TrEMBL record, chain A:
<dbReference type="InterPro" id="IPR017089">
    <property type="entry name" value="Splicing_factor_3B_subunit_5"/>
</dbReference>
<dbReference type="GO" id="GO:0071011">
    <property type="term" value="C:precatalytic spliceosome"/>
</dbReference>
<dbReference type="GO" id="GO:0005686">
    <property type="term" value="C:U2 snRNP"/>
</dbReference>
<dbReference type="Pfam" id="PF07189">
    <property type="entry name" value="SF3b10"/>
</dbReference>
<comment type="similarity">
    <text>Belongs to the SF3B5 family.</text>
</comment>
<dbReference type="InterPro" id="IPR009846">
    <property type="entry name" value="SF3b5/RDS3-10"/>
</dbReference>
<dbReference type="GO" id="GO:0000398">
    <property type="term" value="P:mRNA splicing, via spliceosome"/>
</dbReference>
<protein>
    <recommendedName>
        <fullName>Splicing factor subunit</fullName>
    </recommendedName>
</protein>
Automatic annotation (TrEMBL), chain B:
<dbReference type="GO" id="GO:0003676">
    <property type="term" value="F:nucleic acid binding"/>
</dbReference>
<dbReference type="GO" id="GO:0048481">
    <property type="term" value="P:plant ovule development"/>
</dbReference>
<feature type="domain" description="RSE1/DDB1/CPSF1 C-terminal">
    <location>
        <begin position="862"/>
        <end position="1181"/>
    </location>
</feature>
<dbReference type="InterPro" id="IPR015943">
    <property type="entry name" value="WD40/YVTN_repeat-like_dom_sf"/>
</dbReference>
<feature type="region of interest" description="Disordered">
    <location>
        <begin position="825"/>
        <end position="849"/>
    </location>
</feature>
<protein>
    <recommendedName>
        <fullName>DNA damage-binding protein 1</fullName>
    </recommendedName>
</protein>
<dbReference type="Pfam" id="PF10433">
    <property type="entry name" value="Beta-prop_RSE1_1st"/>
</dbReference>
<dbReference type="InterPro" id="IPR058543">
    <property type="entry name" value="Beta-prop_RSE1/DDB1/CPSF1_2nd"/>
</dbReference>
<dbReference type="GO" id="GO:0055046">
    <property type="term" value="P:microgametogenesis"/>
</dbReference>
Length: 87, 1215
């Protein structure tokens, strides 16, 4: 890699994408975008204890169970991915 | 509008708790995180939990861990928060503060998916800490000591793995080998790509060991192995000679022992016999107990059952894992086993408790073991058990928790001086209605009737060195009664006191003699029984007395003052006389300062509305040093030193200042600072206390002098964590009081009221509210006031529970199975009467302790309750049938007035949230109040097409929010009749407020919509809405154009319709209808403006405008899920806004929050903070070091004392 490459927009973007999960790109599809949003949301619910408690009251589950459920949902937050259209 | 935000009651729920010796030494302490507050608790000798320190950190604490460097005696605290930083704290015993030892930044702030802070793990030998995020990132910091034995922290070492979700991490105990951390991980990268779903189905959780190579300063993945897919938590198993090392993996239904190079040892978690088959058993909290010879684990499941887990092992080979049923307590967020034999259970909802271990579960009980694990075709066979009463634990203390506050109202229902706060708290069987009153709780020790109506009471010691008081002396109109304090309190006649006259003062004088001042003289009783009498000259009588241990001043009628001192021989000698211009209203001498001969100041209050300070120094004896005029004549005076202390348990760090307190005839308490040298008075402040003139008494609270003010209600002025607090006591009106100290009661108060003598102590200092709880049956949702009868109507509903009848039947079965037929019969009758709410304590299966048995998730139980809060009695309880659950309630007067006030309740049948929100029907019930409003009678029930989440009366009709539809109903004979509707709301209507012809509708996701109803055209239409998507959780109508709301993310905000738009709409004959047709993008034509925005950091569930002090301005009160109460007070002057915003700015700079979150960023977490000043930050001013206080004060052109006064003033406007 040449020294100049390091500063072009593409490699900067790649760097960001590698460092920060969820950084988008030009070819991002609807599903990938939604998955990221969902995972971010679940992580936020887990991180904010009062919110976790709020859900726990609504669903009449223990906070620990609610935490676990949200973690589990991070695996496939939006269901199965759509089939890829091979170009 | 500018608001001052102040937390009145800090969050009472607990996120996480850890135990250790944080102050060093042997004392066991607990550090708890309450969301944004970090507390240090200590169980005292009596097993009562005391709060030593409480710090607001302006951030969200997500995890806590404690560690100890080898050879050290003290534990340090590691905090994982939303600050993107790791913070290590040390508790400083001398100053009573948390010292920040290290703060290392590693990422962005906020609770993000890949920024660590969610999990913390500690190497058991205290050599390293791992901090992890939900996904990908894990960082390891090496902890060490430098040459000066100070803690050092390395730069972070990465143990990241992308596309990987982390469920739990923990340290592995491997002695002094390289530190190892274990993590449960799940890789999702393939599942995201595979559209067939095969990869997702095959996704497997792994247990991974990360080794920190201390030599190479590098972290590597050492070992990774598949683990049960239900795994959710890891627990460290002791190693390095104390045990086999490795980890316990808690998974749904199982506990598995795992270690590198060791086969899995798996045992099934016993199941409750009544658990539906679809439900798993998940461990939610764990605690480890380790002694030299043995160790065991306590694991608590999501149903509250605690299991004791033991490992049979030989060296590092584990042969058997046993899980034995231990006890059942309410579900906890964290458990701490203290070395002193206590278990601290931080409940996730409701009160926290401290238990004492009675046994450690050695008796036989239901047990599952890895040795007897049975695998069949349907999987592993579970072991069943039936929960029973506590056998191994004994509850010895409770810490009250309001978490979660579901709804709240501030009403003066009891017609007391200040309104009460009614809060619906708790969940399921632990629900309650709590009545909060501002003030300290007291506990009454004794009440005894006296022969007459006493006028005054004193306590005296016999010797200055005595620990306890010897006599209680009670004065009547014409006699004096002396009671001696011993095992019992009884009347004595050999005390030397004159009992045929009333007394004016009784005290210890000199080292060991007693003094009684009566109208005609002073009686001095020496230790050996000799009595000296000093008689007043002529026919004059003594009217007022002021004294301390060495000085006495009396005021004779006519205004002459005579000053006495105790000389070297213990004699009382007349020193000086002074003629005042008129009669003296009150006298006061400060206590003799330590190491001095006399106190320098005498305060004299006169009926000409002045207070004079006179000198008592021999040089200028009886010279007037200063004069202060007051608004009304003083009734009582008291000198109180706000003590100088460099730290200590109260945390005060400002210089001593002597305050002169005066209770004035108009009910005001007047406080002013006395210059210690010149006696000049300055810096006065006053506060209205009650309808009668406050009488001031000195009492001892936490071994320091405090002030008791008796007006129409008693108040206590004391110093707590650096603040001077003046708080009402929740007790009846008292006449006269004195401090009281005896064997049974070290720091009490004896007081007279009516013809009774009362002894009481003051509990739990520092609390703003004291509470009375009335138990409820299910999770309370909302309540309304039946205004005429002053009754409360509460709706309660729970998902996934059995109805009372089903529970009853199940219990009966269970008792019969257990062969307890006799007891069961009595019990069942009881249940029929009262249901699950008022169980007596002896019940072997109280729901409060064990929780309701779980039912399938489509089952609902719900009830409507009419409660008389005065008698704490339920006058009517209707259980809804057929999985119907109540969600909204309102009282409504239909315009035909046939029935008077009716009650409307919105319900849903078989509501389910997962996998998709569904329900079979929604209803609106209309009830009539019968039997003086004490009971309800169903008029009719109308089926609607959605869940009616909001109901409100509007112009003699009923407005209902049914899903996205706002509909106006009128009352019919058999059902409600539709009159008008608007279907244009975006999601679900969750609140409706009305004012005149405006309707303010809150949408669950889209904030407020302002609507209007046109009667002539019978049309409902939206004329304004908000631009932000706010997920409303609470709303309140502030004024014609303004609404206050709170959203799910912890923000409070106000929106206002701009004045010109509002006027235009009111003036427009079509009511803005023309414009209404011109909205863009489906929005309304007008937009409201956000005028206030503030991030509370906690989900606000209720908002109300009210005033807690009589005659005070109104503020907005809010209650939150974590059980905290706060207030937003509007500023009335621009100067105050300037002052407080500058103070806030300086504090932000000079005193950044403890856990590393930037204050401004925290308060602007979702939207930039607007026009709200954070009072909680301002109130940290007194905890700053002195030079810092002075520096900030200089910049504000004030003195630190003035700033303190300002803070006190603004607080007094709220509470």
């Amino acid at each position: 890699m040449q020294a100049s490459d390091r500063f072009n927009i593409n490699s900067q973007l790649e760097h960001l994408q590698a460092k920060y999960v969820g950084t988008g790109h030009a070819d991002l599809n609807r599903f990938e975008w939604a998955v990221n949003i969902q995972r971010d949301s679940y992580a936020s619910y887990i991180g904010h204890y009062p919110m976790l408690a709020y859900f726990a009251v609504a669903e009449n589950e223990s906070i620990g169970r609610e935490h676990y459920n949200f973690m589990q949902k991070m695996l496939l937050p939006c269901g199965l991915p759509p089939e890829r259209e091979d170009d | 509008m500018y608001l001052y935000s102040l937390t009145l009651q800090q969050a009472t729920g607990i996120v996480s708790a850890i135990n250790g010796n944080f102050s060093g030494g042997k004392v066991q302490e607990i550090v708890v995180a309450r969301g944004k507050v970090l507390d240090l608790l200590r169980p005292d000798d009596n097993g009562k939990i005391q709060t030593l320190l409480s710090v607001e950190i302006f951030g969200a604490i997500r995890s806590l861990a404690q560690f100890r460097l080898t050879g050290s005696q003290k534990d340090f605290i590691v905090v994982g928060s939303d600050s993107g930083r790791i913070v290590i704290l040390e508790y400083n015993k001398e100053k009573n503060v948390f010292d920040k030892l290290h703060q290392e930044t590693f990422g962005k702030s906020g609770c993000r998916r890949i920024v660590p802070g969610q999990y913390l793990a500690i190497d058991p030998k205290g050599r390293a800490v791992m901090i992890g995020a939900c996904e990908k990132q894990k960082l390891v910091y090496v902890l060490n000591r430098d040459t000066a034995a100070r803690l050092t922290i390395s730069s972070p070492l990465e143990a990241h793995k992308s596309h990987t979700i982390t469920y739990s991490i923990c340290g592995v105990d491997c002695g002094f080998d390289n530190p190892i951390f274990a993590a449960i991980e799940l890789d999702y990268s393939e599942a995201d790509q595979d559209s067939t779903g095969q990869a997702a189905a095959e996704a497997q959780k792994h247990l991974t060991f990360y080794e920190l190579d201390l030599g190479l300063n590098h972290v590597s993945r050492k070992w990774s192995e598949q683990v049960d897919n239900g795994a959710n938590m890891l627990v460290t198993v002791p190693g390095g000679g104390d045990g086999p090392s490795g980890v316990l993996v808690c998974a749904e239904n199982f506990v598995i022992y795992k270690n590198q190079g060791h086969p899995d040892v798996r045992a099934v978690i016993p199941r409750r016999a009544d658990l539906p088959a679809e439900r798993g058993v998940l461990v939610v909290s764990a605690a480890t107990h380790k002694q030299k010879s043995m160790f065991f684990f306590l694991l608590q499941t999501e149903y509250g059952d605690i299991f004791k887990v033991t490992l049979e092992h030989e060296n590092d080979r584990v042969s058997e894992l046993k899980i034995k049923y231990f006890d059942t307590i309410p579900v906890t967020a964290s458990m701490c086993v203290l070395k002193s034999g206590f278990l601290f259970a931080a409940s996730e909802f409701g009160n926290h408790s401290l238990y004492q271990f009675q046994a450690i579960g050695d008796d036989p009980d239901v047990e599952a073991s890895s040795a007897t694990l049975m695998e069949t075709e349907e999987g592993f066979q579970p072991v069943f058990f039936q929960p029973r009463g506590l056998k191994n634990l004994l509850r010895i203390d409770q810490v009250e928790s309001l978490m979660p506050i579901m709804d709240m109202k501030v009403i003066n229902l009891f017609e007391e001086e200040t309104p009460q706060i009614f809060a619906l708290c708790g969940r399921g069987p632990r629900s309650s209605l709590r009545i909060l009153r501002p003030g300290l709780a007291i506990s009454e020790m004794a009440v005894s009737q006296l022969p007459g109506v006493p006028s005054a009471v004193w306590t005296v010691k016999k010797n200055v060195n005595d620990e306890f008081d010897a006599y209680i002396v009670v004065s009547f109109a014409n006699a004096t009664l002396v009671l001696s304090i011993g095992e019992t309190v009884e009347e004595v006649s050999d005390s030397g006191f004159l009992d045929t006259t009333p007394s004016l003062a009784v005290s210890l004088i000199g080292d060991d003699s007693l003094m009684q001042v009566h109208p005609s003289g002073i009686r001095h009783i020496r230790e050996d029984g000799r009595i000296n009498e000093w008689r007043t000259p002529g026919k004059r009588t003594i009217v007022k007395v002021g004294s301390n241990r060495l000085q006495v001043v009396i005021a004779l009628s006519g205004g002459e003052l005579i000053y006495f001192e105790v000389d070297m021989t213990g004699q009382l000698m007349e020193v000086e006389k002074h003629e005042m211009s008129g009669d003296v209203a009150c006298l006061e001498i400060a206590p003799v300062p330590e190491g001095r001969q006399r106190s320098r100041f005498l305060a004299v209050g006169s009926y000409d509305n002045t207070i004079r300070i006179l000198s008592l120094d021999p040089d200028d004896c009886m010279q007037i040093l200063s004069v202060q005029s007051v608004s009304s004549s003083p009734e009582s005076l008291l000198f109180l030193e706000v003590q100088a202390s460099t730290g200590g348990e109260d945390g005060a760090d400002h210089p001593a200042s002597l305050f002169l307190n005066a209770g004035l005839q108009n009910g005001v308490l007047f406080r002013t600072v006395v210059d210690m040298v010149t006696g000049q008075l300055s810096d006065s402040r006053s506060r209205f206390l009650g309808l009668t003139a406050p009488k001031l008494f000195s009492v001892i609270v936490r071994s320091r002098r405090a002030m008791l003010c008796l007006s129409s209600r008693p108040w206590l002025g004391y110093i707590y964590q650096g603040h001077f607090l003046l708080t009402p006591l929740s007790y009846e009106t008292l006449e006269f009081a004195a401090s009281f100290s005896s064997d049974q009661c070290a720091e009490g108060v004896v007081a007279v009221a009516g013809d009774a003598l009362r002894v009481f102590t003051i509990e739990r200092l520092g609390e703003t509210f004291n509470e009375t709880a009335i138990p409820l049956r299910y999770t309370p949702r909302k309540f309304v006031l039946q205004p005429k009868r002053k009754l409360l109507v509460i709706i309660e509903s729970d998902q996934g529970a059995f109805t009372a009848n089903e529970r009853e039947a199940a219990k009966k079965e269970c008792f019969e199975a257990a062969g307890m037929g006799d007891r069961a019969n009595g019990k069942i009758e009881h249940m029929e009467n009262g249901g699950g709410d008022d169980e007596d304590k002896e019940d072997p299966l109280s729901d409060e302790q064990f929780g309701y048995p779980k039912a399938e998730s489509e089952k609902w139980v719900s009830c409507i309750r009419v409660l008389d809060p005065r008698a704490s009695k339920t006058t009517c309880l209707l259980e809804l049938q057929d999985n119907e659950a109540a969600f909204s309630i309102c009282t409504v007067n239909f315009h035909d007035k046939e029935y008077g006030t009716l009650l409307a309740v919105g319900t849903a049948k078989s509501l389910q949230f997962w996998p998709k929100r569904s329900f079979s029907a929604g209803y609106i019930h209309i009830y009539r109040f019968v039997e003086d409003g004490k009971s309800l009678e169903l008029l009719h029930k109308t089926q609607v097409e959605g869940v009616p989440l909001a109901l409100c009366q509007f112009q003699g009709r009923l407005l209902a929010g049914i899903g996205p539809v706002l509909r106006l109903y009128d009352l019919g004979k058999r059902r409600l009749l539709r009159k008008c509707e608007n279907k244009l709301f975006p999601n679900t209507i969750m609140s409706i407020h009305t004012y005149r012809d405006r309707i303010y509708v809150g949408d669950i996701k889209e904030s407020f919509h302002y609507c209007k109803y046109r009667r002539d055209e019978n049309q409902l239409y939206i004329f304004a809405d908000d631009v932000y998507p706010r997920w409303l959780t609470a709303s309140h109508h502030v004024d014609f154009d303004t609404m206050a709301g709170a959203d799910k993310f912890g923000n409070v905000y106000f929106v206002r319709l701009p004045q010109d738009v509002s006027d235009e709409i009111e003036e427009d004959p079509t009511g803005g209808k023309i414009k209404w047709e011109q909205g863009k993008l489906n929005g309304a034509p007008n937009k409201v403006e956000e005028i206030v925005q503030f991030h509370v950091g906690d989900v606000v569930t209720s908002l109300q405008k009210a005033s807690l002090i009589p005659g005070g301005g109104e503020c907005i009160f809010y209650g939150t899920v974590m059980g905290s109460l706060g207030a937003l007070l509007p500023f009335t002057s621009r100067d105050d806004v300037d002052f407080f915003s500058h103070l806030e700015m300086h504090l932000r700079q000079e005193h950044p929050p403890l856990c590393g979150r930037d204050h401004m960023a925290f308060r602007s977490a979702y939207f930039p903070v607007k026009d709200v000043i954070d009072g909680d930050l301002c109130e940290q001013f007194p905890t700053l070091p002195l030079d810092m206080q002075r520096k900030i004060a200089d910049e504000l052109d004030r003195t630190p004392a003035e700033i303190l006064k300002k803070l006190e003033e603004v607080r007094n406007k709220i509470i």
